[in-house]
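Record type: monomer structure entry
Structure origin: computed from sequence
Chain ID: A
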Amino acid sequence: MAHKVIQVGTGGWGAAWCNTFLPANVEDGLIEVVALVDKNPDALESCREHLGLSMEKCYTDVRRAMDETPAHFCTVVVPPAHHEEIVDEALAHDLHILSEKPIADTLEASVRIAEKVKRAGKKMGVTMSHRFDQDKTTLRHELRSGRWGALDYLICRFGCDCRKYGSWGEFRHKIPDALMIEGAVHHLDILADLAGGRCDTIYAQTWNPSWGEFAGDSNGLVIMTCENDVKAFYEGAKTNAVGLNGWAQEYIRAECEGATLILDHRHLEAFHYDKSGQGVEKREGHGTTLPMLEQRKWANAWLIDKFVRWISGGKPMETNVEDNLQSVALVFAAIESSHTGQAVKVQDLLAKARAEVSI
């Protein structure tokens, strides 16, 4: 049975959902898109034809859409500050929810949302698309295989030229802590996942250089220590002179006992430890190329598939809202660390938010 879905948000990234991610699952018979919602009528018009919907099933008001259109779940592809109001409306209409990251624009709102979903007895997933892209999934598979020995530490570099206002979407240039909320939310999540353990402590410095046309911090350096003692370092920048490792082209290096693994621009290679003890030096591009895993769906298209199978009675998706609180906690722990100049205990911060939030 195809699950009926209401797509909330068809502009910007929502257009990619309508043009690419949803159609892949419509073709597989997993979903049927029954309504589109966006405050901008032009955004609705540009997307409806990709999904074969009439104008009668295109709405500018989310409540009316849900009142008039029976569905099993809704998507939430709007700016994070508006996530909670859409979730509230979905729960009032007895819908499951699949949302873009982050859960919300604050840790408190994220905890509230997770609790509301739990109390309503519904299911909510979060699309951490970059963790489930082909290259990161292949690297995760290699690290979990055990053939490279124990993992010691990870390095991730993400660098873009989005210094001019509007080059990263206008709303991102207006919000505080843009890099953390809209960028590092993916990369810190990836690092914790590759490390194979929850983050224990995090230390961060974030800033906006004089040439960055952002209201908040656009660059940052982050050090993480996980509960299994794996360390990670993150360099993120949206105002560089040139983009060397932008979206889906990130550099990730994993230092293992038996090898160094380097992922760069979607190419993965291994540099084996030389047991001769000669201390041989090697350069990137001269290692052993590791093949990418192959499957038909990746990133958001794959996560929609995972979500539908979950609400159909399958196992919970890895990025269910409760588990994804770890990802949100990483972001807000990094922000607090940058503001205070002190390392932050991530699990303590999350526990405090849970204790203070009331529904």
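Annotation 1: The mean pLDDT is 96.
Annotation 2: The CA atoms of residues 131 and 137 lie 7 Å apart.
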